Amino acid sequence: MQETNSGGAASLVPYGPLSVSDRLAKKVLRNFKERVIELLLLGAAFVSVLTTVGIIWVLVSESVNFFDNVPIWSFLTDTMWTPLFAEPRYGILPLLAGTLTTSAVALVVAIPLGTTIAIYLSEFARPAVREVVKPFLELLGGIPTIVYGYFALMVVIPLLQLLMPELSGFNMLGAGIVMGIAIIPYVSSLAEDAMRAVPMSMREGSYAMGATRLQTAFRVVFPAALSGILSAYILGISRAVGETMIVAVAAGMQPNFTVNPLEPAQTISAYIVQVALGDLPHGSIGYQSIFAAGLSLMLMTLALNLVGHVVRRRYREAY
């Protein structure tokens, strides 16, 4: 109904069949805008899902063509990886050994240092110190990995050769150490966030029982934040396994079946880079081997993510 005045008299006249009140019109427009926003957000979510499905489809389809020519058992057990030889052999073990060895060296560096930095920033550092250290850590995480690779090749490995003169100019030890330095910001940042999320009441209760700050940090805060800290470790492991340019520059690009970090080796991701540069013709078995190697790397990362999910559920604390 709407009011009309004619000659000083007021009367109620019903709306026409197509008439809509201003308030209702605004509500309809708002609902329409919200619906559009929801669809845009849904589309953004589907982009990530479709991208993942597309990657899996490419890897699996190309790997099927590869395994039509190379037996899976030979791929998993052969200790030689020589796709560029006249008689090529495709055993993933040398690349797998290089990947796991460099990752292990990196984690030996990143986990202790990253955890120590996280504990210091969360429990001991003054706000002014934290405001200075945090940006430097974030800057460390933003440096391109190719720069880290040349840092390992030109600085770290020569320093190691002063201690071990027989050390090769390309080796997994130097590459792994620099990989660990590159991973420190990921471990320390996530671990610190997990520790700072622990309620202050737990710290105050520990102090009331006579505990020191160090005892509180290791016996109260660290166990309470264990779920988030382990998630930081899993992220660091995944980051190390997938690292490419550091090992491509400093580890030697030689697919040796060894777990000795003093020797050169090649990782899965470094081999993919080598073939992608055009060392093998497109469509050949050797070229298709990069998809089988990539599928192996993806399965490793998936396994790590599943382990991380189980660990988070197992040790998650609700406050």
From TrEMBL:
Gene3D superfamilies: MetI-like. The keyword Transport applies. It is found in: Cell inner membrane; Cell membrane. GO terms for biological process: phosphate ion transport. Residues 96-308 form the ABC transmembrane type-1 domain. The chain crosses the membrane at residues 36-60, 90-115, 136-160, 172-195, 216-235, 285-307. Keywords: Cell inner membrane, Cell membrane, Membrane, Phosphate transport, Transmembrane, Transmembrane helix, Transport. It is a multi-pass membrane protein. One of its GO terms (cellular component) is plasma membrane. The keyword Cell inner membrane applies. One of its GO terms (molecular function) is phosphate transmembrane transporter activity. Part of the binding-protein-dependent transport system for phosphate; probably responsible for the translocation of the substrate across the membrane. Belongs to the binding-protein-dependent transport system permease family. CysTW subfamily. This is Phosphate transport system permease protein.
